[in-house]
Each structure stands twice: as C-alpha cells, then as structure tokens.
Amino acid sequence: GENVEQHPSTLSVQEGDSAVIKCTYSDSASNYFPWYKQELGKGPQLIIDIRSNVGEKKDQRIAVTLNKTAKHFSLHITETQPEDSAVYFCAAEHYNTDKLIFGTGTRLQVFP
Amino acid sequence: DTEVTQTPKHLVMGMTNKKSLKCEQHMGHRAMYWYKQKAKKPPELMFVYSYEKLSINESVPSRFSPECPNSSLLNLHLHALQPEDSALYLCASSQGEGTGAQETQYFGPGTRLLVL
Fold it and tell me: pLDDT below 50 — which residues of chain A?
C-alpha cells in the first residue's frame, strides 16, 4: 500500500523567512496530494492541493510543487507569520480509492 | 459554508460504558469519514460511507460501530472501549462524486475521547 514520508518533523523559522516541507510517496498510482494545517485543538484544514496533471500550484504565500518522476511533493510558505505556526500534514490518495494516506507531520514554529 | 460539526467536544468514559459520537454536515456531501488521531500522529482512516452505505472499513475492532442515518449525519457508537482507544476522533466529508474523484475532504474539529 501507499506510504508517505514527511520531513522535517520540526521546523523553526524567523518571521518573514520561508519554510519548506517535503514529502515522498511510494505508490505511482497516487494522483491527488493535499496539504492540511492543524492548529492546537482543531481538526485539519486544507490549505492547498495539487493533482498529478499539474507540476506547481500557488495561492498567495503558499505554493506546492509536484515531481511525479521522483514521487515527491513540497509545500513552500513565503513571508511566514506567527499565525502560520501549526502542524502541517501532507497526504496522498490513490487514483482508485477514497483513502487519504497522511505523512507523519511537521511542526512549524514561526518566531516573531 | 464548509463546516463539519462534531459533538461532543470532549468525552470521558469507562470501559463498560456505551456512548456515541455525532457528526453533521450541510454541504450536500455524500461521502463521510471517521478518522482516529493519536497525539503527535497523523489521522488514520477508520470508516468511509458513500451514499449512506459503508464502503471502507479499515479492519476496525467491533467495539467501534459506525452508522449513517442520512446523508447529513454520521455516528460512531462506542462500546467496551480500552484505554488505548483514547484519541481525537475526526469526522470528514467530501462531495462523493465517486471513487477516485480526488475530492477535498473537509474535517470537523474532532471529539477528544478519554477512556478510563
């Protein structure tokens, strides 16, 4: 089955710096890759997603890139703010299921 | 509105109790999900309902019993739980256009369960 690895497990940046979180997946039949942000005491909230027919997607300060050949995808956050501090999960979904397989999570801390 | 609501927010129960978790969405979604999340871990899928029918059961112990009374509601009935079942239980929903439709799953805030 699908396996998703996520790095780093923790990331500390200064406000205004960029943050990059990387994920690799094992099943080449996965074709949907969402990113979720989970704040303390809350459920995961979708922040951006990408499908396998696209190499890059951007939404204001957030961007995601996908390399299907290497089977990895990355989240880029620019001009980080303290409110970006949270746990971020990547996920992958096989083209023929409704199952999201999550990465292990990255705790991002943005210091003022 | 992309809101999924869950009740209760917190639940403490003994190992002999029977309780239920409830989830509701009014987005017209036809797929609903239960996930279990342990501390500092990612969510793990338990069950998927599609058009009120159970479509995926990830080999969850029978002490967890899901129910989908209608397209807006999802319940998780709990009976004879163990302390290791203590976790955050998350509900999610998606449009339900069909398997492999690559749909966004919208999560509720979760119910934090403690089994004593």
Answer: none
